[in-house]
Design goal:
The protein is of the alpha+beta class. 21% of the residues lie in helices and 28% in strands. It has a domain of 71 residues: OB fold (Dihydrolipoamide Acetyltransferase, E2P). One of its GO terms (molecular function) is structural constituent of ribosome.
Length: 154
């Protein structure tokens, strides 16, 4: 007599094998239990998929593609301290308008290729004015410039 036949003869009625309920009860769900929706409690925030993210362009060498690094804060699994987590995404840049260091917003779209499912969109500035291009001048004349100006005056 094998073990399986001995278990079939017991019909799994032992409480340690199937808990305190019988299998017939589990195979036919009660209609009152099936009607109850499995909604989370109302005081918890609703979880939604992230459709847009912000990040910094780290590579813009490919044609119509930029690599964007998105930084987020997540709790450490053991120590519960918030840790920076970085992830790189490939995003579609149809006009090749972004350079390395630009901040962009990634909008979710249909898959464009095997690795690209986002479209890079420029972030509107907070002040509403376009960002000035820095010339690199501090406004303070250098000593070499002062000496050249004095020689020209003399």
């Amino acid at each position: 007599m094998s073990i399986t036949s001995s278990l079939q003869s017991l019909k799994l009625s032992l409480p340690f094998l199937n808990g305190s309920t019988s299998l017939s009860h589990l195979s036919k769900p009660n209609s009152s239990l099936s009607r109850q929706p499995l909604n989370p409690p109302s005081f918890l925030p609703q979880i939604r998929a992230m459709k847009s993210m912000q990040g910094r362009v780290v590579c813009a060498t490919n044609d119509k593609t930029v690599s964007v690094e998105v930084v987020r804060l997540a709790p450490h699994p053991k120590y519960k301290r918030r840790v920076r987590k970085k992830k790189k995404f490939q995003a579609h840049d149809p006009d090749n308008q972004f350079q390395v260091g630009d901040f962009v917003q990634l909008e979710k779209s249909r898959p464009i290729s095997k690795t690209k499912t986002f479209i890079a969109v420029p972030i509107p500035s907070r002040t509403g004015q376009p960002r000035k291009e820095e010339t690199g001048e501090l406004g303070i004349p250098l000593e070499s410039d002062q000496s050249q100006q004095q020689q020209q005056l003399a």
